[in-house]
What does this fold into?
Amino acid sequence: MTIHFIHDDTYGNWVLGATHPTQGRRYLHAAALLQDIAPAAELDLKILPTREASRAELSLVHSQEYIDRVLVDFDGGAWDGGPNRELSRLASALFGGTMVAVEQVRVGALNVVHLPGAKHHAQANQSSGFCVFADFAAAATALVQEDGRKVAILDIDVHHGDGTENLTRENRSILTFSVHQTGIFPGTGWVREDDHEHQVFNRPLNAGDGDAELLEAVREFVVEAKAFGADVILIAGGADGHAEDSLARLNYSIYGFNRAVGLVREAFASTPVIFGGAGGYRPDDFTPMMWVSAICALGGVGPDGVEALDLEGRIGGIVASVSGSTLV
Ligand SMILES: [Zn+2]
It folds into this structure.
C-alpha cells in the first residue's frame, strides 16, 4: 500500500522552548522509524517535500493582522524568547505541508501523512495550545471551496479540537468529530455534542478511559461520516492519548490507536485520508510509535502486524541513530 509522506528534516527545529513539551525531534524519530519498518510492513513510502504556505491559503482561516504578526513580525505567540524568524518560517512550512497533502488528494492519493499537521487549537486571530496556523481547517475549507468535496475531520488527539471546530462550524460541507479527555485544556468540548445542523460532534472521555472507549467513539464517527457522505477524511492523530503521555490521562495503547485508524480505513476503503500528527509529548518513544502504528493501519497493517514489527524493540536504536546523525 502506498503512503505519501510529507517531511522535511528542518521539522526537527520546531522547538518552542528548551524545556517546552513540543520538541520537533519527534518528527525525525517518526520518519526514521517509519522508513525502518516500511519494507517489513510492505508500505510503499513516497516521501515528498514540504513548502511554505501562500498568503491566500492562510487567509482561508486567518486574519491579515494575525498573518502579518507571524510572518512579518516573526511573533507566533507560541514560542519562548520573542520574535523568531526560523520558527515563523517553520510555522508556514508546517501549514504548507498540509497543503501539499491536499494537492496529493487532488491527484488521486489515498493515504497522505503529514505529521506536523493538524494544529487543531489555532484560532483566526491567535495561536493557542502550541498551534500557530490552523492547517486542517484550511485544508478542509480549500477542499470544499475549490473541489466541491465533503470533508469529515476525526480528531483523536487527547485535547478537544476547538480551533478546527470553530473555524469550520458554519461550513455545512465540513463535519468535525472530536474524541478527547474532558476537564482539561482547552476547556471546551466537555459535554457530549451531536449537532447535526452544523455537523459538529464531541465525545468527551473521562480520565482513565482507554482503547475500548476510543474505538466505540470512532465507530460512531464512521456512522456519522457515512450519513454525511464524506468523500475526504482528515484524521487529527494526536499521540498524546497514550497511557504514558504526560499532558493528559487517557490510556490508549499503540495497538488501540492502530485499530482506531484501521476502523476508518476499512469503512472508507476508497476514500482519501490525510493523517496529521497533532500533539504528542513523548518524542523519544511513544509519540513516534503511536504515529507509525496509525500509519500502518492506513496501509492495511493491523494490531498483530504492528506487534510483529516490534516498534518497542526498534525505537531505542532509531532515536540513537537520529541523534548521532544530527551531531556535528
Ligand atoms: Zn493534544
About this structure: The mean pLDDT is 97. The pocket of zinc ion is lined by residues 157-159, 238, 240, 278-279 (CB under 6 Å). The chain has one domain: 2-326.
